[in-house]
Amino acid sequence: MATGIPLAFAIIPSDHDSLFATMIIPITAYHLFQLLMGSLLVSWMNSSKVKE
C-alpha cells in the first residue's frame, strides 16, 4: 500500500480523480480485510496448537 498509492498517483493523470478514488478505496478495503482475516487465522492456529 505504501508503494502502490504513490505509484497510482504517478500512473493516473491528475484530471481523473474519480478514477483514482474508484481504484484506491476498494483496494484499501480489500487490504484491511486481508489483515483482519490473517490475524484471526493466526490466532486460531495458535490456539489450536496450544490445545494439542
Describe the protein.
Helix content is 83%, strand content 0%. It is mostly helical. The mean pLDDT is 79.
Percent range for β-strand residues: under 5%
Largest sheet: none
Mean pLDDT: 79
Count of DSSP H/I helices = 2
As a percent range, the share of helical residues equals: over 70%
Distance between the termini: 37 Å
What is Rg?
A: 17 Å
| Class computed from helices, strands and strand pairing | mainly alpha
Order of helices and strands: HH
Write down how many β-strands occur, each being a DSSP E stretch of 2 or more residues: 0
Q: What attributes does this structure have?
A:
single chain, 52 residues, mainly alpha, 0% strand
What topology emerges from the helices and strands here?
Blueprint: H1 4-11, H2 17-51
Summarize the structure.
The protein is mostly helical and 52 residues long. The chain has helices at residues 4-11, 17-51. The mean pLDDT is 79.
